[in-house]
Design goal:
This protein has 317 residues and is mostly helical. Among the domains are: 45-122, Serine Threonine Protein Phosphatase 5, Tetratricopeptide repeat; 152-183 and 196-269 and 289-317, no CATH class. 62% of the residues lie in helices and 0% in strands. It contains 13 helices and no strands. The protein has helices at 47-63, 67-79, 86-102, 106-119, 123-139, 143-156, 161-179, 192-225, 230-250, 254-264, 270-275, 291-301, 304-307. The termini are far apart. This is Zgc:101716.
Length: 317
């Protein structure tokens, strides 16, 4: 009886097979191009080459702030992009949307972002698109539209401190706009006394949401500080100071601040924070809780507005 492992495979003692002869590659000579060669007249029928030329022209024009020229070049470039090349198509359309933004073409910019939204296939695409759409709204002073995009970003990346800081800042600006005599609101219709009461309720709701977001940002920043160093840590410390100063200006009561902190820290579990990485995840099976359902309604259920704050606003902000 053979002992397991006591015998050898004959192939061990066979001569090694001759390795295939490596054929030396011919020398490679890099292509030298004149500076800004893509501005020269086009003398090629190659579709890919035309695509490159107009893409370079558009990017250079955008860098020089010639936004109409850049938009024209991006539009021409898009006509040469095959339908299946989604990455290049998305890059060009984002450039077109930014050009429209600078040119004051709000409707066109939002139409492009809507097209990109329908074509998004994973969370990376959606994240970039939400950033772009938020920038469009910010460019044209649409704070409510910007807030909606930032809420979606916070729902998509609930442990991203900078999304929460940006959302908190947007709520703060919205609160300031509602607090000025000329502050506009879609509620300003009908009876003046009723409108004033509704506007006050809306301001109260925006105030609490600003507090909520600054508290959340502060909690996430503190949770991540132990993993940071160098300039990243310095940025976090500056953001913490900014959040603290904002909360001092907003002046929530201690009981309100405690309740908000409890609600906004419920899902800040280290294990969950490490596992919740959705970069590149397909949107097909992605299920996100609505911002209002996940945080705001949970906060309202604590009764914080009845105990320590103003009345609950009758509109969503």
């Amino acid at each position: 009886m053979e002992i397991f492992g006591s015998t050898f495979d004959d192939s061990v003692f066979e001569e090694s097979r001759a390795k295939p002869t490596v054929v030396a590659l011919s020398s490679y000579n890099a292509k030298f191009c004149e500076a800004e060669w893509f501005w020269e007249s086009i003398d090629t029928e190659d579709i890919l080459e035309k695509q490159k030329i107009f893409k370079f022209r558009a990017d250079m024009a955008y860098r020089r702030k010639n936004f109409q020229e850049a938009l024209n070049a991006y539009t021409t470039c898009l006509s040469y992009v095959p339908d299946g090349n989604l990455a290049i198509r998305r890059d060009i359309m984002e450039g077109m949307a930014r050009c429209c933004c600078h040119l004051g073409k709000r409707v066109e910019a939002l139409e492009i972002t809507e097209t990109l939204k329908n074509e998004a296939s994973n969370t990376c695409h959606l994240t970039g698109l939400l950033h772009l759409t938020a920038n469009v709204h910010e460019r044209f002073g649409d704070l409510r539209g910007q807030v909606t995009c930032l809420q979606q970003l916070c729902s998509l990346h609930p442990y991203h401190q900078w999304h929460w800081m940006k959302l908190a800042d947007s709520y703060l600006h919205l609160l300031q706009s509602l607090s000025t005599p000329s502050g506009s609101s879609p509620l300003q219709q009908g009876d003046d006394s009723q409108t004033e009461e509704q506007l006050k309720e809306e301001r109260d709701g925006v105030w609490l949401k600003a507090c909520m977001c600054f508290v959340r940002a502060r909690l996430v920043l503190r949770a991540l500080k132990g993993q940071q160093s160098s300039f990243v840590l310095q940025n976090s410390e500056r953001a913490l100071q900014k959040a603290d100063e904002a909360l001092r200006c907003l002046e929530p009561k201690d009981t309100t601040l405690q309740l908000v902190s409890e609600v906004m820290s419920e899902d800040l579990i280290p294990e969950r924070m490490r596992e919740d990485n959705q970069d590149g995840e397909s949107l097909a099976g992605l299920s996100l809780k609505d911002f209002e359902d996940r945080w705001w309604n949970r906060l309202v259920q604590t009764g914080v507005l009845k105990k320590d704050g103003p009345k609950l606003p009758s509109v969503k902000t």
